[in-house]
Amino acid sequence: MTRNEAREILMQILYEMDATDSMDRETAERLANERLSGNNRERGIRLLCGITDELGAIDEAINEKSRSWKTSRMPRVDLAIMRLALGEIRFDETIPDAVVINEAVNLARKFSMDRSPRFINGVLGAIVNCDEK
Asked: What is the pTM of this model?
């Protein structure tokens, strides 16, 4: 399993957890153990647990930089992609922020609506630029 394949699975797990209102550490660990393998399993569990533990702060950052939509009204796919990207930015220092944003945009191109890549790029870029100041 490649890192990109693992990233897709992690995004799908976040989507599922949000859709079933089960954004908790136990569910994150269980789903990652079921769907990921090897090094991707460890990395996935670490990311998902970090995201669920810091969900309030992650969503707050998204809400602060999103001009048009708040997390409660965003398409769940877009929200899952941005949560995953912010998890990677915050909890995985081995990947440059620009690469994480690019991968998020690619996920949006594959799984979301036509306008989503631009929206996700803008929100994530604003968060990263704000964090760097």
From this structure: 0.94
